[in-house]
Amino acid sequence: MNTNVAVDAQNVGKIYGIGNSAVTALGDVSLSIQKGEFFTLLGPSGCGKTTLLRCIAGFETPTSGAIHLSGRDITHTPPNARPVNTVFQSYALFPHLTVAQNVGFGLKMLGKPADEVTKSVARVLALVKLEEFADRFPQQLSGGQQQRVALARALAPEPEVLLLDEPLSALDLKLRKEMQSELKRLQTETGITFIFVTHDQEEALTMSDRIGVMSRGALLQVGTPHEIYENPADRFVADFIGETNFLEGTVADGKVRIGTGDVLDVALKVQTGAVTLAIRPEQVSIVPTGSGIAAKITETTYMGTDTHYTLALDDGSDIVARVQSNTTQAHKVGDAVAIRIGTVQVLQS
């Protein structure tokens, strides 16, 4: 077995209930996560990502398949016997204990000597930049500070793998962005394998070395953020990761013709038949009439650095263009324009 693999899930399935009431949460999922990797499980609610995380943690036992940690079969190993820690949405801090006592609690439960606990607590509090808050109680901290305490507590025993189950979901937008950078810094500095669960595609793209996109208990695609964004495996992945336009087309004679009758110059994966074209908004340029595909602006949304334009094509389909606000003249609703399309992903219909 590859010694660089931290977690190896082999054909893992999880079914709740029996007979007609049985629900499949995971269906034959196989996945290898490298040591020292920041890996994100991404998908909508109910897709199975948290179930897979709980199977790795030991809180759930797979109905089928096996899970290995650094080559050791841990499928039926109790949670407390696994070198794995979990950070949940709820920080679950003890309100009657100080920050330092909260961080050192797990180490004391492991029977570590008092001087070792003190040194470990000081080390991880420095790591999360909370040294000056050691003697405060959780209720005296902000939400972001409490999250850092929860992270410090999970990092203190130096686990082989740290599991994070949507830990940023309770934070406001600005603080969530700050914590994204903080989590990536912590993972880089510690070298610990992080497995992060989220439904937020921006979080996944921002922090991850690799992403596994899940839907309905299945793992649809695994790749780097660039691979997932630029080369989605199917329509679900293309739609879930970032904003995407979809146009229907037909392949004939090595070309793709869309509903307006216009022909697009794209790299083809299929030789003939109906296809779906996935087009990112930043790949749509607005140009003067007569120099591209005819369109009419039906909606504008100013986003600060970008402006989003919704355009209607002659066949009734809509497409969104994302244009930098400071690099183009402003268009208004009702303007007749044309569009040019850059990179296109061709998906089988």
UniProtKB/TrEMBL annotation:
It catalyses: ATP + H2O + polyamine-[polyamine-binding protein]Side 1 = ADP + phosphate + polyamineSide 2 + [polyamine-binding protein]Side 1. PROSITE patterns: ABC_TRANSPORTER_1, ABC_TRANSPORTER_2. SMART domains: AAA (SM00382). Its EC number is 7.6.2.11. One of its GO terms (molecular function) is ABC-type putrescine transporter activity. GO terms for cellular component: ATP-binding cassette (ABC) transporter complex. Keywords: ATP-binding, Cell membrane, Membrane, Nucleotide-binding, Translocase, Transport. SUPFAM superfamilies: MOP-like, P-loop containing nucleoside triphosphate hydrolases. It is an enzyme of class 7 (translocase). Residues 7-241 form the ABC transporter domain. Pfam families: ABC_tran (PF00005), TOBE_2 (PF08402). Belongs to the ABC transporter superfamily. Spermidine/putrescine importer (TC 3.A.1.11.1) family. Part of the ABC transporter complex PotABCD involved in spermidine/putrescine import. Responsible for energy coupling to the transport system. PANTHER family: SPERMIDINE/PUTRESCINE IMPORT ATP-BINDING PROTEIN POTA (PTHR42781), SPERMIDINE_PUTRESCINE IMPORT ATP-BINDING PROTEIN POTA (PTHR42781:SF4). The complex is composed of two ATP-binding proteins (PotA), two transmembrane proteins (PotB and PotC) and a solute-binding protein (PotD). This is Spermidine/putrescine import ATP-binding protein PotA.
